[in-house]
């Protein structure tokens, strides 16, 4: 019997609750022939909020990618930490959720909006979008101004996301909304129902693309 | 028992051999809970080579999309015929293989190349890439100068694809190659093995994204 | 005596009142040696408001262009339906009014604004502008939120156009305004007088370019 | 009897032979109700080849535009000297032939090429195209490496233009060619016949647009 | 003893108070081995506010640059008058303060804002930014709506600059602010202290770059 | 007596010969009132050639920047490692040599070329240029295909640089050339003399900008 194929989804922060949230969000994508394994990066900070947090996880992430040698790897943090160094370290696909979330939004609507956790992340995200050369499709990015922890667990998160999502849709002209944090996953469906435009969970988007790449080999 | 979910993949030309080729290319993506149904558009021409061919299939395609009411639809022609009118006709996802092939290439490499069937299609493809606002990632597009029929069946197709792919990689700097026709699907793996860079079959790319969208509902 | 040269201006909707409005708007452009013939597309819908309306007129338009074999053809609908298929069908110039209206605005001011009939057309127009690769000159697009019929005939149209034009000029920084519908033609001069910046009727712009192309032959 | 409307076409160099060439090129555009008056700028150098030549004609051009008070003015030099200061000096349309030549090319083909007189002008033209925000439509620019005088009069000019035009079409992918000097006007039709793609004389293009603007008032 | 190296800083308006303001602003950049000589252009207008003002100083500026033959020249007006003709006239570096101010801002923050004197200059500045191909980094430009004279001397200038700078920072997302006039130099430090983001005096920026170019020879 | 102001120039590789080369290249920029201190990053690899090399030095660099608390810091590696995390860690200016080298080239010529050490770095550099939103000014990038060590010391380096520089100038149209490695510094003047267009050493460019920022405080 051949070894099962496997996609590694790494939560680069050390908050296991976020990892469990990813598992829940990814459960509908499960298929019998390709395992989806979610891992918490032990070396990660509790939340990735600063550029220093991003840099700190880069090499441990790379080491984990090499060690696990999965058929494909998804880096489940919207800053796509370590994306290029991981790609250098393995010939197998390594996908970042920011890239895949945005690319999937581009397949759903003319222009997209992004819900950020905090305003200070927006310049970092704009750098990514310019680097990707897709920024002309950005309708706007707006911040919840909550911490990663609050976003994942707080009672008011969905209400804030709906308010921000409406501004993206009605003021900025976004035809789809990307949730700019892996920790927002639980709210995707409710937010989409409320807004009436596609809402993209970037981890789901990346895992879907990874499944496709692994399946066709 | 709930009705099974289903992705409709439409070959807009009337060449059943191409449709069977799509079925073969998509077989590895099959999962038990979501059916992938490939359909030939009866009204389509034998091959879609001109803008007139594109326009002729647009409304029959739209009608088929509405009639079938699948959970998601993939238009399996690299000109993405009828994409916007189909999206207008249904709230469910409609994906074009040119869009999804290119977007998937953007998740694999810095710049991508495209293998076209004929040089006269290149301006049409450039219009699509500018419309998508991703053209700054294009390394180059080069043509086989073969007909759709020759491409699907001819003995020399793979050899020509390898030669063109090498030019895209070595002269133009492409880090990934998109096959610019649904009929090239059978050659993906051999071409990738030969070139040593990711080769994207756009129909596989689109169906992978569609599976993700349907799975998360 | 040589056959007179002739420009065909096609109103792709079946509303003869719009065609007569075009004739009135184009009367000042008349010159003795080149005829300007306005035609209603019999197969067109009463107004072109959706993508389906656009697609429905594409092939009848192409057939009319081929049948009439004018020295140049202008497609007088701001969605430029069938532009590329008509160009494929004849070596003679085929001009779209959206393209020509925007290009003429670029010769008058640094950035331009567009008055749309309805907000739902804006993503379609943005796709055109990105496809044309001129979107960095767009100051903004704003909608009247009236139907094509209301726009052509309603008493309040000019007042709404002035209000929207002022927003384009003062809030968005537009130095010229393009009227985003062939049916707005009657209001050009009054709107320009009111706004004090160039106002472009796209059908006049396209016919002026067509006259130049035909005259130099 | 109302004063006749009039378009002023200024040749900013002092070479009357070029002005007479413009008159010949514009003769087919003549219409009874709008005069096209070609003027040589007395203060101009014999040819405009350097940036200093451009700057030297700027204010004399502006003064001539103000003094003549035509209904519209065309600056017939491919460097568009004085375009912005002339626009500031009059509310009436002032058109530059480089802008109008390129904009007209955009209405004829997906990407355009430019035939320059000398390679040292190319950076200046690229600055114009970036300033116009249309550079993504440029297929390429190639130089004859002849002087303005040679271009206007030399026996070999057409042969060189054909050779350069073929490179633009076949190597660079240009679907239309803009002649990058007012002095090339006599060769437009022969070049177009030879290349089989639209060839744009920029002065004809600008005067056609000016006629349209003046006619609709 | 070798002749001392020297940077020429030209104030193209004839207002000596502005030149003395430049001297004060540049004093901190002085180094013993390279002189910084500020000159008023005798032929300049009292303030450069229009395109005609820009054009009037172009050739006198060029003549002064050639006559002085400094090791490097800085044109100290935010419209960068005569930049390209001066560069043509000498192989030595000629720097414009608008270019250098913006380029220095790009080394400090993700996106920058510009404080203009008057709104009517904004289209001119946008043309420069598109020509430089850096406009995707512009967060916004806002005007004080004061004259050059008021800006240099008026008591209320700093207060207006702070108000406009806050809008650039908070509404437009600017991470650095460029002062869009040489006459604002005296307010740089106070404005930076107030805003808490880098504030760039473009003349200081240009002279710093010129010093580097001259020093390395 | 106030503490002297100081610019820290960090060579992030551990090759002291490169650091001494930087000291030599920067000697002409020395001024009495601001010290320029070159440091070798002890933790760095012998050369930075891969993305992993880049990532490895990021946090040690950041720590050194914080520890030294210089008035400004220059990261002297053409990959600009750690640029954003260092900026987050201090309110004082942190400049990357790739950014500053390119920005300085933009002040000297219309389009620039880059000499890379190896072809595999080019996609990384293109990402930077897209992220900076200045890629429309890139004429081309070409590689020496030598190691960092060979480049710094080898006898043939200058000859290879001249050959590559000529291709950038003559084939790609570069009006200025950026040396894409801190270790090339010794060859700047000889290369510029040979090519006849400005050649930018990026470390000199960055230190010149840093001197300006520190001097004006």
From TrEMBL, chains A, B, C, D, E, F:
<dbReference type="InterPro" id="IPR052186">
    <property type="entry name" value="Hydantoin_racemase-like"/>
</dbReference>
<dbReference type="Pfam" id="PF01177">
    <property type="entry name" value="Asp_Glu_race"/>
</dbReference>
<comment type="similarity">
    <text>Belongs to the HyuE racemase family.</text>
</comment>
<dbReference type="InterPro" id="IPR015942">
    <property type="entry name" value="Asp/Glu/hydantoin_racemase"/>
</dbReference>
<protein>
    <submittedName>
        <fullName>Hydantoin racemase</fullName>
    </submittedName>
</protein>
<dbReference type="InterPro" id="IPR053714">
    <property type="entry name" value="Iso_Racemase_Enz_sf"/>
</dbReference>
């Amino acid at each position: 019997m051949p070894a099962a194929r496997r996609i590694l989804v790494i939560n680069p922060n050390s908050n296991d609750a976020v990892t469990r949230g990813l598992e829940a969000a990814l459960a509908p994508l499960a298929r019998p022939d390709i395992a989806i394994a979610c891992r918490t990066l032990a070396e990660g900070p509790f939340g990735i909020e600063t550029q220093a947090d991003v840099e700190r996880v880069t090499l441990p992430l790379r080491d984990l990618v090499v060690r696990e040698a999965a058929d494909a790897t998804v880096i489940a943090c919207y800053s796509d930490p370590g994306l290029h160094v991981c790609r250098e370290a393995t010939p197998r696909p390594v996908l970042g959720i920011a890239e895949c979330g945005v690319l999937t939004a581009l397949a759903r609507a003319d222009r997209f909006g992004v819900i950020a956790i905090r305003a200070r992340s927006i310049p970092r995200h704009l750098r990514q979008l310019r680097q990707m050369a897709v920024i002309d499709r950005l309708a706007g990015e707006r911040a919840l101004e909550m911490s990663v922890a609050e976003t994942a667990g707080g009672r008011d998160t969905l209400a804030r996301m709906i308010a921000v999502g409406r501004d993206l849709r009605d003021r900025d002209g976004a035809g789809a909304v990307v949730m700019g944090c892996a920790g927002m996953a639980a709210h995707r469906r409710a937010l989409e129902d409320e807004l009436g435009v596609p809402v993209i969970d970037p981890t789901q988007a990346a895992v879907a693309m990874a499944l496709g790449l692994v399946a066709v080999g």
